[in-house]
Amino acid sequence: MRLKLKTGPTVEPVSLKETKNHLKVDSDDDNALISALITTARQMAEKETGRAFITQTWEMFLDSVSSEIEIPKPPLQAAGLVITVIDGAGDETVVEATTYDIDASENSRGRVRPKSGCVWPTHRGFASFIIEFKAGYGDTADKVPEIARQAILQIIGHLYENRGGEGVVKARVQAIEEARILLWPLKILRI
């Protein structure tokens, strides 16, 4: 499986204004830095939890498929799912949405499987079963769980206070270690 981000989030889970308030920063001198830290902190928190926070579109390329396919980056937005297969001749076909079921549970990875009596179309194998999907809690920051937003602010605070020089890598590791406590309830676990 290979994942490719097709369209990133259009907003972040925390705004520049609320982040500056959290950091107790009054000037606009560090706006560019703080904005970059917001994105970095969101990406770190998403990686730690295995989730997408704000709506984003991904492509998943598979060489082979089983009857049930797991979709990463919960919560899956079922309405945005498109499956395309490439056959041996190189022709692309979009699989009819009426031929498969989607499980878009918020608390686990999404799943898709053919409906009873249906099967996945034949495809050429190598990266020829493509699932485009939307993931995230919604298009606005208020849809993101507050615990994730607080963890992101915590990460930003740590990175802002420990920026530059040799301590950057150490600060990033420390920031995510401290935020793990807040992010734990959102972490997607493999059982």
Describe the structure.
The protein is an alpha+beta fold. The chain has two domains: 83 residues, Hypothetical protein yqbg (Orthogonal Bundle); 78 residues. The chain is built from four helices and eight strands. Strands 1-2-8-4-5 form a five-stranded antiparallel sheet, with no helix packed on it. A hairpin with a 5-residue loop joins strand 4 and strand 5. The longest helix is centred in the first third of the chain and has 19 residues. The two termini are 20 Å apart. The model has no long low-confidence stretch (mean pLDDT 92).
Short description:
31% of the residues lie in helices and 24% in strands. It has 191 residues and is α+β, with helices and mostly antiparallel strands.
CATH topology of the largest domain: Hypothetical protein yqbg
Biggest sheet strand line-up: 1-2-8-4-5
Question: SS-based structural class?
Answer: alpha+beta
Proportion of residues in helical segments: 25-40%
Q: State the helix count.
A: 4
Uncertain regions: pLDDT < 50 for 5+ in a row?
none
Cα-to-Cα separation, first versus last residue: 20 Å
From the spread of the alpha carbons, the general shape counts as elongated
* CA gyration radius, whole angstroms: 19 Å
- Please write the string of helix (H) and strand (E) elements: EHHEEEEEEEHH
The largest sheet, given as strand count, sense and whether it forms a barrel, is: 5 strands, antiparallel
Named CATH architecture of the largest domain: Orthogonal Bundle
Mean pLDDT: 92
> How much of the residues is beta strand, in percent?
15-25%
Kindly provide the name of the CATH class of the largest domain. Answer: Mainly Alpha
Number of domains: 2
Can you count the beta strands? 8
